[in-house]
């Protein structure tokens, strides 16, 4: 049984460092170092995470190991990207991030986090959206297993580099 817990304000600093390391481990090789540095400087600083943790419209949940180190997290909150034409915004929320550290991939941590996130979203919304890197086929297969469907594209900027992300939707 994998225990999922809600993040607290005391987690903001550690969570910020984990998120940055996870992003760099997974995607850092794609970007020019200056673009990556510019993106990371503004992306998930501890003060922003603390504000989201304190805001009832947001939630962040964590899975930890026996030494209390973060193995993965999921973050949900208001939609912050433009939805494709015809996609409803009312009654919707967004899964902003689901990151699992390399050592925890394939251990059930991601499944525990997505199930927790879907349950949280069901209490608040009728639609759950997410944006996933267009070339991250492993993540796309994972979301497909949970019933998400691809509904369009999203431009995701990292410095001067623009990736094509895919927007996925789950009717709750």
Could you please describe the fold and organization of this structure?
Strands 1-2-3-4-5-7-6 form a 7-stranded mixed sheet, sandwiched between helices. With 172 residues, it is of the alpha+beta class. The chain is built from 5 helices and 7 strands, in the order E-H-H-H-E-E-E-H-E-H-E-E. The two termini are 25 Å apart. Strand 4 (92-100), helix 4 (109-122) and strand 5 form a beta-alpha-beta unit. It has one domain: Aminopeptidase. The mean pLDDT is 94.
Short description:
The chain is α+β, with helices and mostly antiparallel strands. The protein is 34% helix and 31% strand. Strand 4, helix 4 and strand 5 form a beta-alpha-beta unit.
Features:
Aminopeptidase, single chain, 172 residues, alpha+beta, seven-stranded mixed sheet
Span from first to last CA? Answer: 25 Å
CATH topology: Aminopeptidase
CATH superfamily: Gcn5-related N-acetyltransferase (GNAT)
- Which CATH top level class fits? Alpha Beta
- Strand fraction: 25-35%
Report strand order across the widest sheet: 1-2-3-4-5-7-6
Written as H for each helix and E for each strand, in order along the chain, the element string is EHHHEEEHEHEE
Oligomer: single chain
Low-pLDDT windows of residues: none
Q: How are the SSEs placed, and which strands pair?
A:
Blueprint lengths: L4 E2 L5 H16 L5 H11 L2 H9 L4 E6 L5 E8 L14 E9 L8 H14 L4 E7 L3 H9 L3 E10 L2 E11 L1
Parallel strand pairs: 4-5
Antiparallel strand pairs: 1-2, 2-3, 3-4, 5-7, 6-7
